[in-house]
Fold these 2 entries.
Entry 1:
Amino acid sequence: MMSSCSNIKPPQSNIDLNYLGTQKTQWRDTINRDFTKKDQKDTVILFGGMTILQDRLVMAALEAKKEKYVALPNPDFESFRTGKAYGNRGQCNPTYFTVGNLVKYLQNIQKETGMSSEEIVQKYAYVTANGCGPCRFGMYITEYRKALTDAGFEGFRVFSFEHNKITNEDGSESELNLSPALYITPIKAVLIGDIINILSHKIRPYEVEKGATDKAIEKCYDIVSDALKNNKNLLFALWKCRKELAKVKLDRLQIKPKVMIVGEFWAAMTEGDGNYNLHRFLEAEGAESIPQPIINRLMLSIWESTYFFNKELDIEDEAKTNYFDFSSTKRRIITKLLEVTIKSYFTLYAKTIGLHDYTLPDIEALSKLSRVYFPLDAEGGEGHMEVAHLLESIHHNIAHLVISVKPFGCMPSSAVSDGIQSLVTSHYPSANFLSIETSGEGAANFYSRVQMALFKAKQSAKEEFEALETPEHIPEKVHNYLYQPKNEKAGTAAQLLYSLNM
Ligand code: SF4
């Protein structure tokens, strides 16, 4: 069986580095896991790392559970610089942004309140996702602890969702509640956040009055967060949001290129300095973007868990397949149920608020599409998904441009996926694909490369639209966001016109 990273025990003694000529010892991760009943009352749990709307909605969902969770602000360049100052050298830049964001937040509290480091360590803790790698994601928690220690917050508690059974240093069970039951409403909040984010990217580029979409989205946040905090009906809340969004006046026959954003998950999703505000930049340049929602990552994680589990079983004992294995069957059923439940909630919420044309990714189909190019056993980052998304866009004419965003120093995205993408683009020379690195510096270079790729995308969108006949009468429904015809055209204006000609 494959080993879990939680089973790996660190060496007990410090390594002597005196051979380097200086009196140094290897840095060791000291873990403070204590979280007692008293802490439960007094401690503020910090979290973050999703889109701004999702962090806020999750905070509202946890408030309903009487849990004291606070979402960190969106990471910015100052977070990045703080991460670089206190983090290890040679990390990928989401590490610097996210780790630095936490340190910066604590330092600001210190400045504003005059609290001592010890008081902050006592009063706050941080919860984050974690993994076993194989990329640097497996080191995130250690990076947090290292940077916090060097910034003067030694002993600051960092927990991971992965370890939902946490024990204190003395072996007693921790009072920190990370049980699966706690996640249900926050996961619903994440799904709703995904749906509202997707809609905002479909609506905002076509708004007649600048800022109207953001105002409507803010109203949706108020409605949904009120429902989450007060255990009200979420479907009713989403129906109210539908009415708010329908009030935004649109001109959807403007020709705009559609840009699919893929790449390393955090870099593609974040909405700020972490990707030079790519989504807003594309809109300002006259494009419509297709974002990567968090549910896509969830679906990939579920697919990976089944894929690697099946492989382990094959390797472990081929003879086992000849008789009924209860635990494997149970695991398969639970995984399938989880997938079906998440997809059902997403579809129900999407239909209620009026997102009709969004198809959740079929990871199995995408894996079949990409496995000619990408070895499916290669884990890390988004695995085969970056290549699969490009192929999907080419085969199904989804976008005029595919941008793959990769953080500086990202092994799976830069070294593996990009190497393979050059083979894909050599087989499909007409594909408009841009791979771009976000180093946390060099915005001018980043923007100018995006603008160059957009030039070609704008031409394609224009040609696609102008090849269609414009009917004499354009019905009002084309300017309503609820009208979402799906057809072989990529651009929104071309899709609408094509649907009228059918
Ligand atoms: S996928 Fe890349 S950027 Fe993300 S944690 Fe792994 S190495 Fe870092």
Entry 2:
Amino acid sequence: MYVIYDDFYLKHSNGPGHPENPNRLVAIKEAIGRWDLKDRIAFWKPRTATGKEVEMVHDKDYIQEIKDLSQMGGISYLDPDTAVTEYTYDCSLLAAGGCFEGLDLIFDDSNKSHKFFAVIRPPGHHAFRNHGSGFCIFNNAALSAKYAQARYGIKKIAIIDFDAHHGNGTQDFFYDDSNVFYISFHQYPHYPGTGNFSEIGRGRGTGFNMNFPFKGETGDPDYIAALLDIIIPVMERFDPELFLVSAGYDSHYLDTLSSLNLVEESYYKIMYIISYLS
Ligand SMILES: [Zn+2]
């Protein structure tokens, strides 16, 4: 498996004391270093996405706004939780480009592995076409889906989001799209307020959006049951050519951003099932 990472991702800052901080990636990188199977992974450098590529998903004016705020320096807020600082624009382009680089690797038939893990920041699933929110600047999952479709002619894509929060931005991009199936497991009711069962898509996209709104204290038995009993049969029918996973780890029982009860092994189980599907 390829692990996309660059120390430059550590430069984006939301200001002091913020939960979305560089230590997230430092911890992941250190954990991979301790991992018994680390010989089976290859660290890979990201590339920088172009403004044109980001326009597949975001409005030109919004992209320019992030660029201008970064150039201004200091700290600007898109919402009370989401800051733009000196390196935010460049880190955001590198985050999107990291996903593109990963996709280029897995779609290259001469490469052995067809999986990648993008260890990137800032995150993306609360980012909308014309505004960022909830720590998110550019929507990396939406950009990945659009890039795979444009570059590799992929039609059907599943996005599975197990971050503790509902990926309202990602859902919004594909809400009336029957080719990109968005599935989210999250605490509910909780930030950002969306993600109920009843949100199933719109128009041609009806039935291609699925939310699992879990109460606080939910642990992996419910996640596994949902995956085995619902997601596997639904995905076998949908038959996507690519799985994208929004892998936020704030559903861990020690993370104070949610009161979900996943443990380290839960993520192994979840990814084992998604890997089976892919
Ligand atoms: Zn989250």
